[in-house]
Description:
Elements: E1 2-5, H1 13-19, H2 24-34, E2 38-42, H3 52-60, E3 66-69
Parallel strand pairs: 1-2, 2-3
Amino acid sequence: MLIHDSTYLDGQESLAAVTQHSTARDAANTAKRARAKRLVLTHISPGNEGAEKRYLAEASAVFGGLIVVAKDHQILTA
């Protein structure tokens, strides 16, 4: 399982670069290269709250494993 910062979405790459954060697609690329089975997207930008479907769509375009958009205080098990 890879837990990865996914603050931003496609179209927000310049914000990601300036703030040294990642997009959902960046996280998915890392998960693919790491051969992870699960990807947990975390540290979602407050400005993107409610965009869980978009995070999932952008990450799943690259990564074929299970993807979860984490919620605050969520507990995940293996």
